[in-house]
Design brief:
Elements: H1 2-46, H2 48-68, H3 70-87, H4 89-97
Helix pairs in contact: 1-2, 3-4
Length: 98
């Protein structure tokens, strides 16, 4: 029984060591993949297709943020328009003709 317990403990220790080694290797691989992806992103940004993709992503983000903050944006524009009407009443009257 003691011999069997020793063998099982040895297998357990070997299994734990193998798992730790595997996790360390995986972390190193993920770090390397991250560095490669950063380099790939830099190359894609110098490519016209990458610039278009970045532009589409930026416009999509701006649209989502505008949708999420629509009340704040419209309130700001109303304040600016009221200021414009008070500051330049002649222009406002001229624009009412159109």
């Amino acid at each position: 029984a003691a011999l069997l317990a020793g063998i099982l403990a040895g297998k357990l220790a070997f299994g734990i060591a193998s798992t730790v080694t595997g996790v360390v290797s995986m972390v190193q691989a993920i770090s390397s993949a991250r560095n490669v992806m950063i380099g790939l992103n830099a190359v894609m940004m110098t490519n016209p297709i990458g610039l278009v993709a970045a532009g589409v992503a930026a416009l999509t983000t701006a649209g989502v943020l505008l949708y999420q903050n629509w009340d704040i944006v419209t309130a700001w524009f109303k304040e600016q328009f009221n200021w414009f009407q008070i500051t330049f009443p002649e222009v406002t009257e001229t624009l009412k003709i159109f």
